[in-house]
Amino acid sequence: MGHHQAVGDHMGSPVRIQGLRMNARHIDSGIRADKQFNRAATWVATIHMHFLFKPFLPGMLALLATASFGQKIDRKALVSRHNVVNTRFDSLGSVTVGNGEFAFTVDATGLQTFPDHYLRGVPLGTQSQWGWHSVPNTNNYRIEEVYKEYEAQGRKVPYTYAFNANTGRKGEVTNYFRENAHRLDLGRVGFVLKKADGSLAGRHDIKQIRQTLDLWTGEIRSHFELEGQPVDVVTICHPSLDQINVQVKSPLVQKKRLTVSLRFPYGATDWEGEGGWDMPDKHTTTLRSTGSRSVVLERKLDTTRYSAAVAWTGEARLQEKAAHLFELTPAPQKDLLAFAVLFSEQANPKAVAAFTVVQPLNKSHYERFWQTGGAVDLSGSTDPRAGELERRIVLSQYLTKINCSGTIPPQETGLVYNSWYGKPHLEMHWWHAAHFMLWNRPALLERSLPWYQTISHKGRELAQRQGFAGIRWPKMVDDVGNESPSPIAPFLIWQQPHFLYFAELAYRNHKDKKTLDTYKDLVFATADFMASYAYFDKAKGKYILGKGLIPAQERFKAEDTFNPPFELAYWYWGLSVAQQWRGRLGMGRKPEWDQVIKQLSPLPAQDGVYLAAESATDSYTNPPYMTDHPTVLGAYGYLPGTPDLDMPTMQRTFDKVMTVWSWENTWGWDYPLVAMTAARLGKPEQAIDVLLMNVTKNTFLHNGHNYQRDNLRIYLPGNGGLLMAIAMMCEGWDGDKGTPAPGFPKNGKWKVRWENLAKMP
Fold first, then answer.
1. Taking all residues of the chain, what is their mean pLDDT, rounded to a whole number?
2. Burial of residue 723, with CB atoms counted within 10 A of its CB: 0-12 exposed, 13-18 middle, 19 or more buried
3. Alpha-carbon separation of residue 594 from 578, 584, 585, 713 (angstroms)
4. What is the pTM of this model?
């Protein structure tokens, strides 16, 4: 089957990546539900009945759409059968605890003991939504220095461009504002282990490893031995605070051979945030005692301030060993050590809750999460890929919950380690978090929507500077919405309708005026920009998008490109939704929006297929244009299409893409993107095939992360996209035929049970 071969001839089939061998069978995830939709019915698609009851199929399908066959899903069994188990130090197998605002990633010891081994894998980071740092701007760089004008919409429009390093000061300004602000690694907490002869133990001295990420309880339980002496560790994260709690039981505690180190770095300006550990003179860490069993470590990095409060039970003491390096040494009377570290923006943080307090809170938090919201159970399926798909679904819920449900849109590597200096990419926010709504966990998306209001003034300033109305949402930003220079990001437009999509999903969930009032101003301002951005071509008598844009398929020059089909369809959908919002609020339709809706350019086609852009007549003959995101398909799949969409043309376009695309040169969310189109086109077999396509970018590691490449070992848009596609493939979409599980094959091999999912628009 070549590039279209599905992953795994059996559930335990190994996947080889860049010389690293991983067994994809043991990946897990968990996710929290803060709120659920009112719908609580259990839906069962017993697709194998198709052939047995073919003469009665229409009636059977109607019954399947309204009734439940079999028992309610055993959610604990579903989740627990995908617990992550580590039996060695796997550089790509680290596991994480977190709560959406904060995350802590550990190695096989349950702490961050051997970080160097994981540096080129899934690193051992400690990150938060609030932890940001900037190197002092001693050269008085100004972002205006890298504005570059492009001919667009019949005039010159300034964009925040990235100049090369050889362009002198413009290159320096570019680098400064790309690198700053950057997300901080807040600190590293690890064991100091000693052998019987007093020498430090290394990674290879650790034996009998057995580590379990228990998804149902949100705990990491780690067991290992050093020279025959057992060590048992439980690691958890507070459900609502940036705090880890750890309990250690071992004879090594009594023998003074186990202590805990805390180390702090300076802010790292490299792309992945790996540096900062060798600059002790650029920051300070001050120890302040706050009691007999607690201290506060005060951190100062230029204008950034935060603290790490450390508390423990029993007799112990915390001492400074070197600059930014501290060691917690328990008294030798017992074999048990329990401690906690609370990271905070405040110099005087809250009291640190003990392990015995946090553990039951954490357990009930996760149990509540798993018992509510959506669930998908594929047990009973005979397709050999079903177990792997279910594993990915469960693990993706856990990973997006702890990384993508915070108050700020996440970076593509979440709260594990930096990519693009730790900055969110707003066009990716949909792929990270829109699925929370379809899985009936709306609060996990809505936590981040107020952030758009806090940066809306920057979006208004950007639109005004470029001569447009309303709000233009930037693409690559820091935590307060400052746009970063880039040769691509400022020209992207497909993030603009995302806020409309989020708001519409929120309204579909709540169906109340409060939701309309909460989001209406940003909905209307977003639509105002979209309408003003569309340029009326008098010769064609149509509104066009571009020139001066780069489509979601980032393979085209901004100065030449216009009318990509996905963006055209998203413009139509977004402006139509904005008009619906006006109607719901008792307001008349806005004529300027209607004018664009009615006269928007049709989706560009040639030789019976849709093009990547109207300007790209060589879409299927120029090799680079058959790489990156195949978003030509997003016009019908991700979106419900436009009135002028021709179904046979889209069918041929799908077949063309599947045949000619360079799948190794794609990204993790491309597979769910294509699967959604396959589902709408009535091609469920191909929807499954593409979701499990055996290519590097579609690899899901042992811990559930979506691997991409050497310097992007995890990629959460792939996880979130998978969940969006699965919800749609189970529950369907607006205007579907009512067939149960329309995205799953009717070949007798799939038994799909699901609960509490919502339809896709």
1. 91
2. buried
3. 10, 16, 17, 44
4. 0.92
